[in-house]
Amino acid sequence: xxxxxxxxxxxxxxxxxxxxxxxxxxxxxxxSYVICDKGVLVNSIYNYPANMRxxxxxxxxxxxxxxxxxxxxxxxxxxxxxxxxRVAMNKELNxxxxxxxxxxxxxxxxxxxxxxxxxxxxxxxxxxxxxxxxPHRLNVPGEELDKVMHYYKEPHPFYNQKVAVVGASxxxxxxxxxxxxxxxxxxxxxxxxxxGPRVKYWVKPDIENRIAEGSIKAxxxxxxxxxxxxxxxxxxxxxxxxxxxxxxxxxxxYEPNFDFLIHTGVQLGEDERKIPVHNPETMExxxxxxxxxxxxxxxxxxxxxxxxxxxxxxxxxxxEIVKRQKV
Length: 327
What we know:
Blueprint: E1 6-13, H1 17-28, E2 33-36, H2 43-46, H3 77-91, E3 95-96, E4 101-107, E5 110-115, E6 119-127, E7 134-135, E8 148-149, E9 162-166, H4 170-181, E10 185-189, H5 204-213, E11 217-219, E12 223-227, E13 231-236, E14 239-244, E15 247-250, E16 254-255, H6 258-264, E17 290-292, H7 307-310, H8 312-326
Parallel strand pairs: 1-2, 1-6, 2-3, 6-17, 8-15, 9-10, 9-15, 10-11
Antiparallel strand pairs: 4-5, 5-6, 7-16, 12-13, 13-14
Helix pairs in contact: 1-8
């Protein structure tokens, strides 16, 4: 190693809730560590819709033994941002933000991690990168137009506009309802036969009633085939339809950065789920001393792992690391 490198015991990729939890566990174990993220603290939560409310209750989102107090049983995005900032400050965590990891290389004795700003050497690496960075694309002509968005923040820009919302998950349903209530003419385009079964139980009747009364037009078993400046073309069970349109919110889901995993050397499952190879008892991948934590463990099954059921990954991994340190 010729260049100047920073040395840590544990290098954690991703400063989301689970990455933060891993840092807390490393700190508690007396190990040197750094948490590195290409964006802001809890970047995925920051990119959620402004008015989003969690399905989980606040206590299920807690990490590091720090209580999460919210005004309602199900906290909002802003409350979560405040909570995780407070945890990071309270624990004085070693976090580097706006510093993307470019490459992770194995060498005899550990890992070399090349980031945008520096180079690290670590004995152990934890990948906790989530799945919110890469949207599923429609792969249709016109998707590159500025009117097409794969992320939704708030309804105000869509007042008095004809908006097509693609998808039937929580994000699509929330966007459709919010935009409708703020004065947009909303059309919902759904590939399946009905609204998704995982839509929040207090929201599902709302969207179904709005569709039934005609306030929101819905095309089921349908998909966009072409996007133009002022219109879209739909393939429906009754034939092709041409609709006037100002904006397309393509909220069709997101996926982990599989290319990054592959280039790092992590093997993926051979079926369409692309679940990264790892030992569920230790969270170690096929690479020695490289671990996975959080939603990334589920591959394309992004609904499998959440904050509430993957918080334990941090303790599982750190217990394994501590055991190896003592050998």
